[in-house]
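Task 17 of the worksheet. Students: predict the tertiary structure of the chain below and write it out as structure tokens. Keep your answer in the requested format; marks are given for formatting as well as content.
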Amino acid sequence: MPSLQKTSAPRERSQTVIPTHRDEVAAAGSELIGGPYGRRALPGTGRLSPVRVVALVAIGMFALGMVQKLPCYNWAWFRGATSQYTHACYSDIPHLFSGRGFADGLVPYFDRLPGDIPFLEYPVLTGLFMEVAAWLTPGGGDMTEREQTYWLVNAGLLMVCAAVLAVCVARTHRRRPWDGLLVALAPAVALTATVNWDLLAVALTAAAVLMWARSRPMASGILLGLATAAKLYPVLLLLPLLLLCCRAGKWRQYGAAVLGFAGAWLVVNLPVMLLAPEGWKQFYVFSRQRNVDFGSIWLLVSQRTGDQIPPDRANLYALLLMGMAAIALAYLTFTAPRRPRFAQLAFLVVAAFVLVNKVYSPQYVLWLVPLAVLARPRWRDFLIWQACEVMYFLGVWMYLAFTMGGNKQGLPVDGYQFAVVLHLLGTLYLCAVVVRDILAPEKDPVRQDGSDDPSGGVLDGAEDAFVAGGAAHPARHAAPASEEAQRVRWGAPREQDSRG
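Model answer:
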């Protein structure tokens, strides 16, 4: 047994991709914590394995995000609307505790609410999450104390989601666990994690991607169905799976994923759908009737032209553009020289939805973070995009401070429009480099070590069943055929990883 332990560490070391050996930005940034990964380091041994480090860093960054909300927690949520914007610490959570009847013991979807919105306007699983947090919030005391406690309870539950998210990303690409640090250290995650409840759906989606990477399509579909029961966007991942399974001829696996998706979604939704149909459909009615709102390209057009785009027209425009994006994604999938990786197409389809949607709340960046890390694990590109998102995060609150404050302190309309454009350009930039990686696979950082599709599960290394255009001549399958790829496939150490 001792001899086995001696040989396992070098083997794992040879197979683990070390970012500080391959990424100049990661190497430069590592100087803050002692420099690049050294030759004596043994990843995966001892108590601080890469996954554990990623989880601890994610929890630490989440805690820093909670500290950033302290001005609001102490007073700004309760003493004036403008202060929570100038301190950039706004959160929906304390306001909806009383505003959606949780403080009064009302049952979501069943009990009618006073005001313009008759029922809770969130999907069922998110509503259950909110209700469980309300059950864990002690009664008694004044409303301010109860709202503070409700936010703390939700923050504790969302911290678990953040840790699950980071761990799932770290484990998806087996040879690249350190890419999870991009999620754990993402400033936009720390800033937006407790603005709303999106982390629940994001963590479930990351778990679904992990299960697909482990060739467990039924489990992946179940988790994706649960994620869609918490937020609508995860259903979009069925499109890239359909396209990739079509190219690889993996119809049975795709069918298992769809079956699991439908079953899980119905288990969560069907009881409420049957017993409280009016409350259940409130989310969909609200989404359809919602006006063009913050962060969207449609708000930018409306403000620049002075022509208010009505909800129905914005819905139509968004639907048409998503249809065009789906066609472009299909063309890219079937004509690319090698089959695109699942994470690449997943990121592109969700990014397209974000870009054309009629609202972009600051926390929506959470939808893209794990997919962006898996699609393009390069620190420079990721940090450029994150800088744009942080600027938008600050811009939207300063704009609200300007429009809602009587002293007009904050960011005027032109400044806010610049922040929106920055967000749009940052997302488009990341989409562009992902598309470039698909068209030129040799530039894909994940495939440079000889991998095919680490997040692809049954797709990883599979032969193509259907291709079109240039992809059909002459290559007919996606498995890497290089000598380097064969060494990786059979577990032989890579020469450039011998440093540790």
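Marker's comment: The chain is about 65% helix and 0% strand. The chain has one domain: 51-489.
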